[in-house]
Amino acid sequence: MADAVRGLVAGLSVVFWCFATWLIPVLVAMGWWRHYLRGIPLTYEATLWSIIFPLGMYSVAGMYLGRADHLPIVEWIGATWLWVAVTAWVVVTVAMLRHIVLTVVARPKAP
């Protein structure tokens, strides 16, 4: 049974990976629109983690899809995006720690 659907699953995986790749410029454009054109300041929000997780999943999925379907360009794109995901994770982690220090730790105690 697995051999019978292997081609279908491989093809659909590539289609969904291509769709995810197509969404990246859309997400960048939406961020540009929100923070540059609308003027909303780029500050730490817990919702930033909902961007970080898909970045990591996209990169790992790309690496494994490239290996499984023998698509070296897809594997290379996944490995490259892994560094983008790690960088974004570090930036958001630092912003979160800064936010915690400024709002929780440095907050003056009530008398």
TrEMBL record:
Entry annotated with the keyword Lipid metabolism: no
Primary localization class, coarse: membrane
Top-level taxon: Bacteria
GO cellular component annotations of the record: membrane
InterPro entries per record: SLAC1/Mae1/Ssu1/TehA, Voltage-dep_anion_channel_sf
Keyword check for Membrane: yes
Signal peptide: none
Gene3D superfamilies: Voltage-dependent anion channel
Any GO BP annotation: transmembrane transport
Keyword tags: Membrane, Transmembrane, Transmembrane helix
Location of the protein in the cell: Membrane
Recorded topology in the membrane: Multi-pass membrane protein
Membrane-crossing residue ranges in chain numbering: 6-30, 42-61, 81-106
Protein name: C4-dicarboxylate transporter/malic acid transport protein
